[in-house]
Amino acid sequence: MEPFKTVTSLAVPLDRVNVDTDQIIPKQFLKRIERSGYGEFLFFDWRRLQDGPNAGDPDPSFVLNDAKYQGAKILIAGKNFGCGSSREHAAWALSDYGFRAVIAPAFADIFFSNAGKNGIVLVRLSEEQVALLLERASTTPKYELTVSLENQTVTDEQGFHASFEIDPFRKFCLTEGLDDIGLTLRHAAELDGFEAKHDHANWLKPRATSATA
Predict the structure, then answer these.
(1) Whole-angstrom Cα distance, residue 76 to residue 74?
(2) Structure pTM?
(3) pLDDT digits over 19-37, tens only?
């Protein structure tokens, strides 16, 4: 998992509330067994026309299809982002697309946990602050935000400055780039030592045999 210190990037305004995980990554794409490749299907039903002779083509009205936001690593959205089912694939899709941070007034609890385990920083700001950022990202050409996990701040070049809270353990994992496997591997030497002692005591050490008549 890539460590997160500070990211400065274009910001994409997704001015929608209650964005559920089935919209983030529709259920028909959950058959894949890898964690990679999901970015292509992020917001699939919104990114593509659903009806008419051009069904399946990119929908020019959807924000991710706007060339001016290509390469953005920060997503701004409405409250209750990530609601719905608990699929971790939603976090995989956002990460695979390239998003490192999502800013919203509130997030669904399970999605919040899944995102953190996949290197995505979720920033809770007030509805008024998020509304301002959505407006600036929609109207300001090449609008960029800086999300500093080290300082726990969000800033822009127009004077915006906001602080956000984050659990210290989650912050540590994100800044160090440690997922659950990475956390376990930090204790690899101790685990190897335990296994060696266990094997010697229970498998390799000769067992005493009782005398036979």
Answers:
(1) 7
(2) 0.85
(3) 999 999 999 999 877 888 9
